[in-house]
Amino acid sequence: MIQRIFLVAIAAGIAAGIFVTLVQQWKVIPLINQAELYEFSDGITIHSHKLSDLEQAILAEENKNTTQANTETTQANTETTENDQESWPQDGIERTLYTLGANIVTGVGFALLLCAAITMRGKKIDVKSGVLWGLAGFITFAFAPAIGLAPEVPGTEAAWLDERQNWFYLTAVATAIGLGLIIFKKQYMIKAVGVILIALPHIIGAPHPDEYAGSAPAPLAAEFAIHSLFASLCFWIILGAIAGYYFYKLDKNPTYS
């Protein structure tokens, strides 16, 4: 059984990782490149207002450090041309390959969770039901968290990382349990508990700074969030479809069960 789960997860993770990388290269990476131009351009304009005193102090200190670093870098570049420090990974094929590798590893990890959930459910599935499982994964790990914490372009100011991580974990767990209660339970009271669980993180509210702040303009940030969710949707649909296909095949030929 464990070997079966690993085989399906590896196949689904690789396929989903490759596919989502192609989608990202098409829709997401160009927006990241645009945002980085705003982030690293001279005379950055922060699109925000009414920052708290602490945030203003932090931002002023960061700008001071950035200006000093840029001055030192400029002086170093004057002395050395081809051997100066380079970003890692390099733009182009190197960055694409690292993105592909990260997506495949992520795909296998999420596929293990998905396959474990399917196995615990104990029902035979096919491609169609696999896609539904994938949609549930998308809602749990992408769509529901994005309602409170949308994907952010480089250069966007945000709340503290640990606060955002904790809210993401709460949202993912609550959404997964809530969907399970709504879909798999027949009692309406239990379904109502599922709805409350899904709504609970959003009632609590995601952590945010007082106002939007970032080097990239708001329309670019919004476009990035939409395309990132589209890429995630493609990822989970492929993940679920491939998992459903291989589970169906292995059920017909249970060599590795």
What can you tell me about this protein's structure?
- The protein is mostly helical and 257 residues long.
Helices and strands in order, then pairings?
Layout (H helix, E strand, L loop, with lengths): L1 H39 L12 H27 L13 H29 L5 H22 L12 H24 L3 H17 L13 H35 L5
User: Approximately how much beta-strand content do the residues carry?
Assistant: under 5%
Series of secondary-structure elements, N-terminal to C-terminal: HHHHHHH
| Number of continuous helical runs | 7
Name the poorly predicted regions: 42-51, 78-85
Q: Give the strand tally.
A: 0
Mean pLDDT level = 82
Distance from first to last alpha carbon:
5 Å
Question: What multimeric state do the chains show?
Answer: single chain
Q: Can you give the helix content as a percent range? A: over 70%
* Sheet/helix structural class: mainly alpha
- Overall outline: flat
Q: What radius of gyration results from the CA coordinates?
A: 22 Å
User: What is the makeup of the main sheet?
Assistant: none
Give short descriptive properties of this protein:
single chain; mainly alpha; flat
Structure at a glance:
The chain is mainly α and 257 residues long. The protein has helices at 2-40, 53-79, 93-121, 127-148, 161-184, 188-204, 218-252. The chain is flat, with a radius of gyration of 22 Å.
